[in-house]
Amino acid sequence: MTEFLQHLVNGVSLGTIYALIALGYTMVYGVLKLINFAHGDVYMVGAFAGYYVANALGVSERPSTAKAILVFLGSMAACGLLGFLIERLAYRPLRGSPRLTALITAIGVSFLLEYGFQLPRWSFMPFDFPPGPTPRFFPQPFERADWTVLGVSISNYDVVSLLVALGFMVGLQFVVFRTRFGTAMRAVSFDAGTAGLMGIPVNRIISGTFVLGSVLASVAAMLVAGSRPRIDPIMGLMPGLKAFVAAVFGGIGNVPGAMFGGLALGLAEEFVAGYTVSSFRDAIAFAILILVLLFKPEGLFGRVTVEKV
Amino acid sequence: MRLARVAAVLAAALAVAGCQQKKEEAAAPKASAVPAPAPGDRILLGHVGSMTGSEATFGDSTDKGIRLAVAEANAKGGVKGKQIEVKTYDSQGKPEEAAVAATRLVVQDKVAVLLGEVASSRSLAMAPIADANRTPMISPSSTNPRVTKDGAKTRPYVFRVCFIDPFQGTVMAKFARDTLKIDKVAILRDVGNDYSVGLADFFAQKFQELGGKIVTDQSYKAGDQDFKAQLTAIKGKAPQAIYVPGYYTDVALIARQARELGMKQPLMGGDGWDSVKLYEIAKGALDGSYFSNHYTPDSPAPVIQEFVKRYQAAYGQVPDSLAAQAYDAGRIAVDAMQRAKDLTGPSIRDAIEATKGFDGVTGIINIDADHNAQKPAVVLGIQGNQAKYAATIAP
Question: Could you say which of 3.40.50.2300, 3.30.200.20, 3.20.20.70, 3.40.50.620 is the CATH number of the domain covering B34-163+303-375?
């Protein structure tokens, strides 16, 4: 029983990460109908941005709450800027082209970030950038505490991550359905051309969506790197892929769906690894998802869209 | 507008290409530092190592060991009146990069002897290239038996100066049974790594032969962030120790997560643990754990103390076992070239194969019929976040 509960805690902790990344995926898809494959790499850049800020502040020697907040803000700002630049330079010029073109560009941006970060340090950079393929170790932004409840160990990182993810989910729902920006987002998502004719600044709304999604990715990166400290340039690859699956599973474009999908995937992986053969971890978790999608292709919370003729 | 964008993309591409070139120059700093003698006057040794990546300290230590051996040989007049030069290419910790680097050293640079790699997966990628181009290759530290084998037959051009995993696995199994008196062990292996899988298999076989029990056999993939699912499953089986034959980055993270789950069992492992980074990352989580290794710098043996002194004088740090193995590999390469009748691949190969009773830092090295070295192993225990000598186990 203790073992089961521990798996449950681990699974929720893992699922929370997928959920945080999936929220960003789903939001960009919801507005643009573009699968932003570079999202996992924005997550990676977020981790490195936080790492550089933390090093500059000397977090590993003397951690403090003020520094932790600065690390979060620094990383969020860097990722927001990166999201803006990616959208402005890579996606906007292709706005009118077929969706496949944008998709391939997204994969290109993803590779550019992954392999660009593996280059050796540029001599003119004042700090260690690009980092190269050697993994780095992220200093803990705030003190880790492990509690044991009924033989199950839970850390404050797990609790904070889950609360942050839930908070973001509620916040996003609020932004999308209760604010002017959200209304504009939904209008752009429904029909960008017509929304433009109605006076909605389509480009600005799409930029804003990217910035918001990228900031979410950076928060996810900070929470993950705090408890699982290894960061390297391809760290975004698998979590990005899994978060994408989580988003599809919950119904892509749907915010609570992404949250649910992330948690479900985390738990599926955890229980498969814990109770069956651990090498099948990903295989069985993904097989379950395929089964769900076979019977409910729009995802658990997705809406069936009827093609109008 | 469109043209401007194309220009920007091109500029970015050029900048990236420029950096690529810089990396290659950086890989061989010695070559440009010393005035290059005429091509006929020097002998090239090639080294493929993981200078960056998850096992960066392996490549770094190995490179330092090789360069120390070569510098000493050059100070004594080189080989057959020629100076030796080392050319190092980075494998980034990837087998495919190791194969590319090996091909480049053998085909383009025409090195006399190819040295490397540490990781068995990467040596396995290089071995067929050395064989096909008839260039002798010496791996300083790859312990998987298949490295020198092509199916059942021994690869003619591939050698190593270390013991192999059937022995290394046995060492830890014996130590766990006889010294630690442990009955129940769990295994956590890296399924994507030839070294880890081999070592886990040999350990399990010997441990069960000695009357011990393997309670569970879990796996992970190198680069995983989260090991808690496997560790929780292991915790449920209550083993007395966990055998984790992986590389240092993963092992240190596994140790930390095990402690976070409240598991107090010692971990046990192999020479893949040997890195200063292990202690930096683990931050004390590995105290009470043991691993098998090739040598210990604490040994009072004069040959070891002499080496430690010279290495410290050159690099200002204590050599780990990978540096010691690389030093031996470099010296054996030099020794074989001295003895060879000329500097062609087949002659050097014959000379390496005839190496007998070579007094290396890591023990007396005899190359056997399978191109392996027969040497004793040491077991190191970790206390106060430092490795301390625990036992020597002979083959």
Answer: 3.40.50.2300
